[in-house]
Amino acid sequence: MSIPELDYTDVLSQAAKSTKKKLVLLDYDGTLTTTHKLPEFAKPSQTVLDHLKTLASQPDTYVYILSGRGRHHLDEWFASTGVGLSAEHGCFYKHPANIHNKWYCLVEQVDPSWKETIRPLFQHYTERTPGSFIEEKEINLTWHYRNADPEFGSWQATELQVNLEKLLSHMALSIVLGNKTLELRPSSIDKSTAVRSILKDLQLPSLDFILCIGDGKTDEVVFSLLNEIPHAITSTVGKKQTEAQYYIPTVDKVNKLVEDLGKL
């Protein structure tokens, strides 16, 4: 099924007509920035930060970055913009600085001892796959193979997934396959968990403009959730099979739209 390209003028005119609250939900890696090989080097450019800050400072406009990254990276990178944040694929979220600056944890107690069981398997594959590495977050554990030989890395990831599935049969954990990453997180949580909380806290009836842009598999659950809200606009980045209603061709076009929304 071919989806249409997002009509920017239509989005801008809907935003301009809004008389209540506006909500803008943006993925980070692959949406506002091209995916970087090393997590710590993927920090946003000053231009991206400036556009986000301008948009977030508009009256009645609530901007959130929905990311798979850890809280400390997001806090460090986006503190100057005042936007709301969601970290580790929905495990944590916080509202924009002008509402409340406190992180909420959506994971009910997870026994961290699962990492002790899983880590040796991740280490085994890291040793066998040159260029791969493990990123340990507060809740989630990620194996990155972007810098490995592409064919060998994918093959190892498939094998790791098969071995994990055997181990996980009795654990409440899910495998999340990303862009050259394999991540484990609590089964009860995904990005839509955080979005549900955000919609509830902001009070859905008081929102008359909702725009959500993401590019990865983990954004699909958010598109599905928002597609049930008649006026919500959902868009993926790049043409692909998706739950989103539209697509935006490139990261540059996403940033241009964020910039233009900030000028309304």
TrEMBL record:
Keyword Hydrolase among record annotations: yes
UniProt pathway: Glycan biosynthesis; trehalose biosynthesis
Cofactors demanded by this protein: a divalent metal cation
Function noted in UniProt: Removes the phosphate from trehalose 6-phosphate to produce free trehalose.
GO biological process: trehalose biosynthetic process
Family classification: Belongs to the trehalose phosphatase family.
A molecular function GO annotation: alpha,alpha-trehalose-phosphate synthase (UDP-forming) activity
EC nos: 3.1.3.12
RNA-binding listed as a keyword: no
Protein name: Trehalose 6-phosphate phosphatase
Catalytic activity: alpha,alpha-trehalose 6-phosphate + H2O = alpha,alpha-trehalose + phosphate
Enzyme class (EC, first level): hydrolase
InterPro entries the record matches: Glyco_trans_20, HAD-like_sf, HAD-SF_hydro_IIB, HAD_sf, Trehalose_PPase
Pfam family name, one: Trehalose_PPase
